[in-house]
Design brief:
three-stranded antiparallel beta sheet; globular; 17 helices; alpha/beta; eight-stranded mixed beta sheet; 418 residues; 13 strands
Length: 418
């Protein structure tokens, strides 16, 4: 956490800011007057802790989004600093350039060498511009994939730290294949033969998060969020204004509790009181045991089985409503195979509903292009007996072309000009 004089506060943290201002005034008064005010300062500091506890216990979804973006919040490199030792950063995608928004390299966690990859936003304005505010270009995702493949080559676990408002949406990024790069990462990550652990430490927005977000275990910090679109952009689409961003955050159900309920994440990692920005070391120490335990757990599983479990894990995500056979009420389904069979059955019924029976052998079809009716004759063993039962209106001359002599057919093809 930055020094008190540089500490930044969000709107709902105003009571804490007022207490810090009172503490600072008491410290200045004690220094000038040489009076011992330590008891008063201690009481105010205790009130700060209590306020942090109160704020943490009643955060709204939008407030969690704000906390995940707190300018003092620790980013990927801070977690690397506090959790990993002997970190060696690697650069470049071996194709275009090095993307500063995506960092990665080998590091050690309690003697276990791992590959650490994550988005980095930057701690001040200049660094945020250098890091493109954590929005990676295609070369960033290709760099991440290169490092994952390198880890797989040396049989080292992969840990990804996700914190991005989304993949960079610029024209040049699209020209270099932003969508393909993210899709390729998803495809390759689900097949990696080494353990993969993904941790959402802040913002987890859309494909930018998924580009490094496919793993055996998905963790999420207490005040992070994970969804397909930011609340502001969702509000601008639905209500044509950012003013409804709080409502959008509520409707998107993007908090860790919702994600865990939906089965999209495995574990929620607790943060220090008030958020991870209050104590970097405590935030890192809360995460580290989960990483160590999970690495050991995943290393006991056969690689082929691990890949199979990963595919099943992501294949089972999501749920939907499907109509019952009598179309009375929807029933909830979780089996993709059953849903596919049901969709095929509904499609068949839907296709059949467009036809009405005309006797036993034919149906009337409304030809919207010509404005006339034609009939589809069913073939039977005795065509001579059924020929009169099929009323077929031919758009050219009112006759069934199959009943016409071969000479007449050839004459029509040649245009009938002699």
């Amino acid at each position: 956490m930055p020094q008190d004089k540089n500490r930044q506060f969000l709107d709902f943290e105003k009571p804490i800011r007022d207490l810090f201002e009172d503490i600072e005034k008491l410290k200045q008064t004690a220094e000038k007057s040489k009076v011992d005010l330590s008891d008063s300062i201690s009481k105010l500091e205790a009130q700060v802790i209590e306020r942090r506890r109160e704020i943490t216990s009643q955060l709204t979804p939008w407030q969690k989004v704000q906390l995940s973006r707190h300018p003092d919040r620790p980013y990927t490199k801070k977690y690397i600093e506090y959790i990993f030792t002997d970190f060696v950063e690697l650069f470049g995608d071996r194709n275009v350039k090095d993307d500063k928004a995506m960092v990665g390299g080998f590091g050690s966690i309690d003697g276990q060498t791992v590959m650490v990859i994550g988005q980095q936003k930057g701690s001040n304005t200049k660094k945020r511009q250098l890091r493109n505010f954590g929005m990676a270009n295609p070369e960033g995702y290709r760099k991440a994939l290169r490092l994952m493949k390198l880890a797989e080559k040396f049989n080292k676990p992969v840990i990804t730290l996700i914190d991005t408002p989304g993949a960079y949406p610029g024209l040049e990024a699209e020209e270099r294949g932003q969508g393909e790069a993210i899709a390729r990462n998803i495809y390759e990550m689900i097949r990696l033969k080494v353990p993969v652990i993904c941790v959402i430490i802040g913002e987890g927005a859309s494909g930018g998060a998924l580009g490094i977000g496919v793993g055996d275990r998905i963790f999420m910090l207490e005040n992070a969020w994970y969804t397909v679109i930011s609340p502001e952009n969702c509000s601008s689409i639905l209500w044509r204004s950012w003013d409804q961003k709080e409502k959008a955050a509520e409707q998107l159900k993007l908090t860790p509790d919702h994600m865990h309920k939906f089965g999209l994440i495995d574990t929620i990692i607790p943060e220090p009181l008030g958020g991870a920005h209050w104590n970097y070391e405590e935030a890192a120490n809360n995460l580290k045991p989960y990483l160590l335990k999970t690495i050991k757990e995943l290393q006991q599983i056969n690689p082929a089985k691990r890949v199979e479990n990963r595919i099943e894990k992501f294949g089972a995500m999501g749920f939907w409503d499907e109509l019952s056979s009598n179309n009375d009420s929807p029933s909830r389904s979780h089996d993709p195979g059953d849903a596919i069979h049901e969709q095929e059955r509904v499609a068949d019924n839907h296709s059949n509903s467009h036809f009405s029976a005309n006797g036993d052998n034919g149906v009337n079809i409304d030809n919207s292009a010509n404005g006339v009716n034609s009939a589809h004759a069913n073939h039977s063993d005795n065509n001579n007996n059924n020929a009169n039962d099929n009323n077929i209106d031919n758009t050219a001359n009112g006759a069934n072309p199959h009943d016409q002599p071969q000479e007449a057919m050839e004459e029509r093809k040649s245009g009938g000009q002699e």
